[in-house]
Amino acid sequence: MKSVFKLSSSRMALVAAFGLAIGFTPAQAADLGGDCCADLEERVAELEATTARKGNRKVSLTVSGWVNEAVFMWDDGTERNTYVGTNSLEQSRVKFTGEAQIAPGYSAGYTLEIGIVGHASNKWDQTTPGTGSNDNQLTVRKSNWWLKSKDYGKVTVGLEGTAMYHILDDADGTNTRSFSDAEGAAVAQGAFFLRSGGAFVNNLRWSDVLRGVNNGTDGQDGRRNIVRYDSPTIAGFTVTASWGEDDIWAMALTYANTLGDFKLLGKVGYGQNSDETISACSKLNGQDCELFGAAGTIMHVPTGLYAYGGFAQNHDKTEAKVSGAKATDTMWFIQGGIEQKWLPLGKTTVFGEYRHDDGGSNLDKNFLGDYVHNSSLDFVGAGVVQNIEPAAMDLYVIYRHADGDITNASADTVKLDAFDMVIMGAMLKF
């Protein structure tokens, strides 16, 4: 739910609105003494002083966002604990969007989105639930302007998601999108240390073996300084292309439609990222990453039964030149469930999911020292999301289990201790 402020400094409009709010009638107004007008004027002045204002009346202003806080209970087989903080999968944020019509069918606008990092869950590990330097920060998630045409599409310039941004996540057509999408497992436990036989494995974290340019998930890129184009939607299809920074480009195709009793949503994309300063494809100098991702959701609308799944891979052409390296990382996932409005408060989504990663190599810049030669990881999860329509709120409970093994630089296979986590929280939108 969004809050839209259409602002006016007209004192007469405020007086009229105030009169209606307190139930004035013409007969009542005639009986008022002289002091009432002074009181009314004082109240109007207070309202004017506390009302948000726009600097440019020609451009609309929409303010939206959400707060997402949760309790995380985890067990790595040796230690268990409970942390509380901001759910980094979809962190709390506030978004400002403006738009002005240039001519019929043409408009210009801007997006400014600020992330609010209270106590970030993606910074936690077994030794501490984050550090003070990670807490209570604001981050600029998006800052861009755009031009849009009904017939020709939209061009965006600035900090924005590339065409491969959330290519898997945004193919989730259910209410698990913000709570357990394709990258949910990687975000939840990425910073925790790996254990084998109760001992830490060379101080490696799950994020060291979960490969991917963005949030440890193959096939997805992040928010970059780019030029992006989104085509008009034709027969359910939308084309997106982006380019920017140090030779980052991508293209994607989205399909969204309802055919009979089935609701369909699908995305597929390909891109390249050779900017080693902003990506984690590998630690090599001169990395050259190729990204591919495809995912989709099909839902039977009358019953609410659905399936959501996808496949993605990263390939580093620089890493492929190193003898013995496994330069291609792949992952696939499947989620199934049912989404129905059994309660008058809102829809309930019940789901189960599975994700498998073949992580490939993670070399250091000199091909020396401890590094991951390969990995095989499995994640099994289940959960419930309950929407509360009157409050624009979602309550969620999610359980996830992870295990697997890695192959180290000495070609030894190390079996990892299982990692379990339960997440309970709420997202309140505004």
Describe this structure as you would to a colleague:
By secondary structure, the protein is mainly beta. The protein folds into 2 domains: 4-48, no CATH class; 66-88 and 162-429, Porin. It is built from 5 helices and 20 strands. The chain has helices spanning 11-21, 26-30, 34-50, 184-189, 206-209; strands spanning 3-5, 60-75, 80-86, 93-103, 106-117, 137-149, 153-161, 193-196, 199-205, 223-230, 237-244, 248-259, 262-273, 289-300, 305-316, 328-343, 346-358, 372-388, 393-408, 413-429. It has a 16-stranded antiparallel barrel with strand order 2-4-5-6-7-10-11-12-13-14-15-16-17-18-19-20. The chain is globular. Mean pLDDT is 87; it is low at 1-32.
Quick structural overview:
The chain is mainly beta and 430 residues long. Helices cover 10% and strands 52% of the residues. The protein has two domains: 45 residues, no CATH class; 291 residues, Beta Barrel (Porin), CATH 2.40.160.10.
